[in-house]
Design brief:
Layout lengths: L1 H20 L3 H9 L8 H22 L1 H10 L10 H19 L3 H4 L10 H23 L13 H19 L1 H10 L7 H25 L3 H5 L1 H24 L1 H4 L1 H24 L1
Helix pairs in contact: 1-5, 1-10, 3-4, 3-5, 3-8, 7-8, 8-12, 10-12
């Protein structure tokens, strides 16, 4: 049992480290290039909303006595949620770094050169729909016979927590689509950090492994049904990252590699030449 606990701890730490580090390559690349070209603001925008949702979910299952008691009632064979302190730390960090990446699309804040893409009405619509859905569910729970405090027989506040977590799942499924489409339109992954994807896929694999080990140690596979979002998120992440790796290393390999470097250097030269021409004009 001690060795199993050690494996679980090692997986938890490794997963948190991999996913946490995956947030840094893209902002650092943007800073180095002084540009967000090649990326879409839709990704960090919807990603931030997703992690705010996930933070709410993890904090509730980790720290709320009410939510934890309702969870135990709903899952008597595995009464302890498979949410750990490292999940809370990771999610707080994720909200901060996602917000930072989103802020880089504000020229007045960073002064970076921008592409022509905006967030898009579809992504804004999805975000608005998510907020309206949470509000509607909260109203249903308040209006239910038990007022949210009878998890055995009706709507309970844990259902709101689950609803918020499903928003994160929905956002994770769709958040990669705008960037995949951007890469497709540009026929290149220049500007999109592949290092973040490599770290992300490691985190996804370890996330799935962690929840499986947690369920084994609890002695019941209902740990998966009690925390389905964490399990599905890891699998969705791996699939989406596989698409990015295919784009970068196979489909657009030349433009993302040597030719991509030439394009990036050429764009930098053009920017510098433009600045010199502005100085000469003055």
């Amino acid at each position: 049992m001690a060795s199993a606990e050690a494996i679980r701890l090692a997986k938890a730490v490794s997963r948190t480290a991999s996913w946490s580090l995956s947030f840094y390559p893209q902002p650092l690349l943007n800073i180095r290039r002084r540009s967000t070209r090649g990326t879409t603001p839709a990704f960090p925008f919807i990603n931030t909303l997703g992690f705010v949702s996930y933070l709410t979910y993890t904090l509730a299952l980790y720290a709320s006595p009410l939510i934890r008691s309702q969870y135990a009632i709903r899952n008597p064979s595995a009464p302890n949620p498979t949410v750990r302190f490292n999940d809370v730390v990771f999610t707080v960090h994720a909200v901060i770094l996602s917000s930072l990446a989103w802020s880089m699309f504000a020229p007045r804040l960073w002064g970076f050169s921008q592409g022509s893409q905006g967030v898009g009405i579809v992504i804004y619509g999805i975000a608005a729909g998510c907020l309206l859905s949470v509000t509607a569910l909260a109203i249903v729970i308040v209006a239910s016979p038990g007022g949210g405090y009878e998890p055995r027989d009706g709507w309970a506040w844990i259902d709101l927590v689950y609803g918020i977590s499903y928003l994160k799942l929905l956002i994770t499924i769709i958040k990669y689509v705008p960037q995949i489409h951007t890469n497709y339109k540009l026929k290149s992954t220049v500007g999109w950090s592949i290092e973040q994807i490599l770290m992300d896929v490691v985190g996804g694999v370890l996330s799935v492994g962690q929840i499986v080990i947690d369920s084994l140690l609890e002695g019941d596979w209902s740990g998966l049904t009690g925390n389905p979002v964490k399990f599905v998120l890891g699998n969705v992440t791996v699939v989406a990252d596989a698409v990015f790796l295919w784009q970068h290393y196979v489909l657009y390999r030349k433009r993302s590699g040597v030719e991509g470097k030439v394009l990036e250097d050429d764009g930098e030269r053009r920017r510098l030449v433009g600045e010199e021409e502005e100085d000469d004009g003055q």
